[in-house]
Known about the structure:
The structure is a homotetramer.
Chain A: H1 3-20, H2 33-65, H3 72-86, H4 88-97, H5 102-129, H6 134-160, H7 165-180, H8 183-190
Amino acid sequence: MKTNRIEAFSDGVIAVIITIMVLELKVPHEMTVAAAVAVLPSLLVYGLSFLVVAIMWVNHHHFLDTAKRADAPLLWSNNNLLFWMSLIPFVTAFMGQNCAAPFAVAAYGAVLALVSFAFLLLQIVLAKQDAEDGVRQIRYRRLNRKAAFSVALYAISAGLAFVSVYFSFAIFGLIPMLYFWPERELNETLS
Amino acid sequence: MKTNRIEAFSDGVIAVIITIMVLELKVPHEMTVAAAVAVLPSLLVYGLSFLVVAIMWVNHHHFLDTAKRADAPLLWSNNNLLFWMSLIPFVTAFMGQNCAAPFAVAAYGAVLALVSFAFLLLQIVLAKQDAEDGVRQIRYRRLNRKAAFSVALYAISAGLAFVSVYFSFAIFGLIPMLYFWPERELNETLS
Amino acid sequence: MKTNRIEAFSDGVIAVIITIMVLELKVPHEMTVAAAVAVLPSLLVYGLSFLVVAIMWVNHHHFLDTAKRADAPLLWSNNNLLFWMSLIPFVTAFMGQNCAAPFAVAAYGAVLALVSFAFLLLQIVLAKQDAEDGVRQIRYRRLNRKAAFSVALYAISAGLAFVSVYFSFAIFGLIPMLYFWPERELNETLS
Amino acid sequence: MKTNRIEAFSDGVIAVIITIMVLELKVPHEMTVAAAVAVLPSLLVYGLSFLVVAIMWVNHHHFLDTAKRADAPLLWSNNNLLFWMSLIPFVTAFMGQNCAAPFAVAAYGAVLALVSFAFLLLQIVLAKQDAEDGVRQIRYRRLNRKAAFSVALYAISAGLAFVSVYFSFAIFGLIPMLYFWPERELNETLS
């Protein structure tokens, strides 16, 4: 198997993940302002998850572009990542329908922490493929610190949901921004 | 990342969007003429949305064929477009089940206005990549005027839904025709 | 646009169509033999539709392999075909849940007649691209006769459903066989 | 048709299969520990099915890499495999919601036995394409014995469900391990 097959399969899975989330938006049955407002939290959570998955797709491609071999560790750290990502539509629907419930917000944070952790594992596998390249190793260490930071933040957001869900929302809004801006730099760093 | 990866991912997302809409068609449970007639509006709205998304897919490819670089502005104006397009199945189900309700019809028009606006943004990003090509710039300006015209028409259709939903339906039927015919010209213009 | 992009998009749409049909199978909630038997018609109809769509996918590829240009007639006769194919999951669910109801069986036959007709249109467009090749024209005429025969059979099956649904089932079972066997010949004929 | 088109279509179908399973996870509506625990079996079954399908995807690619011709036997043994795989989301939802019911557990085992049998048929077709290569034939015979072993184990698990579902679960957990470890060897054997 070549790495481009892993990319193509991952693209397919991520394209389905990012799109089927919209099926969880419940069409309002009454034509009142209250019914429209009731759909708003689901829509906002959907927008957030779309952004998060889109960022992951972009990063995933940057990382896989650097892959040297489609060996078993790469294949299975990638499948592991896709598994945790595939739970995003589930927690998106859960939090969208219960966005004031600490448990639902904590579940969303916990799944994103696990996805970030799966990303960290994938990066470690890719770094090992490049073990003899000293310059890259330094850069990978920085990327890994950043990924570990995301894992920690999402884990904290899951815990904070039981104090106040607004703390969690603040962290959910903050992390995409962290990833969004330095992307250009990431691009230059790795390609 | 290369532009063909953006195309492949967009193709995947659009293929899922255009197909999952059919899941929102509710199978009638009674075998009466009334039950069959009740499904008709949903079917017609589904047909309209299929046509709209198919046109968008065709235009999307014409535009991305001209892309020079897969840089961050292109990547994110494209992800932005896919996000708004992904709401089409939602408003299709909403209007299909409530096609006499001004609010549902306005929501359909509003989402299509936002999709058209996202297309306009993508075209502006692509035009900037071609900034030194004078002939292309003139053509892009014409394409942008046309896109801005669509945004305006869809926005008007959303407002008119509260006067009479038939005005909105007339606009929904008109815009695909506008795009459909000059496609060959568009093709020659850009490729 | 190149013909391979049409193929890739069609592949994506057909892959989603053939797979989402399974979502319409309702999981039985009681663990009785009666509940298991109640799911059987849906399963059989799903199997039939899977076979029909798989045959269409195979034929679609054989046809598109002969395409010379991705012009507007090809693009839109293909989008037209994908639209009617996208209704197959809907009528599959409908007939699966009401397989003794003439109306549901007729709807299934009618949609497959329309899909076959869309295939005929696509073949006519492809034949025109090959207009100067005399040998191919003779072969296309034979293929078109066969497609027209399918359209007629499916249309008859829709009508016969109101006499007895078993006539319709016989036709639904017969047509895949007609297509299945001479496929090798088709392959040799066109490639 | 070339073998890479079969791969691309299979990738699309498998990507949809592996992802839509998550739609069957029912979002809990009450925020109690009991409701969260009630979702756990579905989640675990989903995780198991994701692992099973991911292994199948990996094996599928290893096998198709060795394909010589995209002839009718290959095409239809592959479509046959995809059909049985497409039932995995159905039995995953069924067993996930009724994981103590022997009938649901047996259905899961039976479908996986049929999928494994479809894999065996595909391998036999591929082995025939390589009929003159003596070394490969010996290896194929070993792979076929292994596939036949899976068929037998899954069939036994279906039967044992009526004695105790825990026997079945033990087999469901054992088989992925059998496939997981020797993958590297498989890779070397065939490529």
